[in-house]
């Protein structure tokens, strides 16, 4: 029997328009989702992350919708941050973006800012030092890679929101309590056993394809992946070797499947506390003997040797990735374009260490606010790309129409130095 959605008197008042049409519209969205998914009630959220921010995704209709909502007086009531836009906001001209793309993109960001959203323009809100999600917190995050991180690595609770539903949650400060907000839905549906080495970020990307494709929207339990992970650092905002691998794993699981939560035995918080009681009795077993199938799919165009753009930082690069790239490029000169995409806030932290300057001296660009999937890179003359990120290898050919080479970070940086994929 379907549970009836219970609303508090305050929530009923918002739904009836007590705080104006903008808030009423937001409440209608949250309540409708709650009724569709059989939620018992609404739950307050601590933080919201909005995705679908690029003009490439929004189009004119999306920009008009945002402006209308802002004009109706809608304002967010919890801290809310934004996913990458389609360009770096204050360098778009210099980087070659067309004004017909830039102008509506700026209008969209202004509408978000008018509603009180922080224009962080990054898919890695969990790397920001001023807010990190905590275990057991309810969130409304729309960026699928960040959702996987929050649920799995931190043990926070969030569904994979859509762009409008995340914004609606920010405006009313609540989301409907269903899906991953309920402990019973956080149990593992698949047990994954790995019988091959998983060493690099690119290996974790290849693994994400092989598991994501089989699991779909399920919850994988990695029985032995902890063998391939150093301990997580106390400060998760630094990334670190383990953080960088898990960032890629979650992004790929979400892109190739629709995974919003995974567990690693003895490693991720819920798996550590609850052990195998977290596995459903009907869980299916998956054995991964090698990563060949993942590499074959991601390294999609093996005939391509000339690379127009090497891109690293999907999800946005962490401080540890920026440090590694700077060390690797010290004193080198690049033959082709390199984008290390990251959050503005991470770029500032890396610049304080001198890492951004080293990458730029080599001829690379540390690009903030955007990435090679949400930016119109074909308009910049990019036809071939190389990356070490599973999600980028999945989405860039689809969204940006480029040919793709895939391999570990050293291979990508070598391609940037020589201009060729050897
Ligand atoms: Fe982030 Fe773009 Fe990848 S939004 S997760 S860098 S596709």
Short note summarizing the structure:
The chain has 422 residues and is α/β, with parallel strands linked by helices. It is built from 15 helices and 14 strands.
Order of helices and strands: HHEEHEHEHHEEHEHEHEHEHEHHEEHEH
Helix content: 40-55%
At the fourth level of CATH, the homologous superfamily of the largest domain is Aconitase, domain 3
> Please, how many domains?
3
Structure commentary:
- This protein has helices at residues 9-15, 21-36, 55-71, 99-114, 144-154, 163-172, 201-215, 240-256, 269-274, 292-298, 319-329, 344-353, 355-361, 390-400, 409-418, and strands spanning 42-44, 47-50, 80-82, 139-141, 174-176, 188-194, 220-222, 263-264, 279-288, 309-317, 337-342, 365-368, 384-387, 403-406.
- The protein is of the alpha/beta class.
- The chain folds into three domains: 9-183, Aconitase, domain 3 (2-Layer Sandwich), CATH 3.30.499; 187-294; 299-418, Aconitase, domain 3.
- The strands form four sheets. The chain has a five-stranded parallel sheet, sandwiched between helices. A four-stranded parallel sheet has the order 8-7-6-9. It has a three-stranded parallel sheet with strand order 3-2-4.
- Strand 10 (309-317), helix 11 and strand 11 form a beta-alpha-beta unit.
- Helix 2 crosses helix 6 (163-172), helix 5 packs across helix 8 and helix 8 crosses helix 14 (390-400).
- The protein is globular and about 65 Å long.
- The structure holds FE3-S4 cluster.
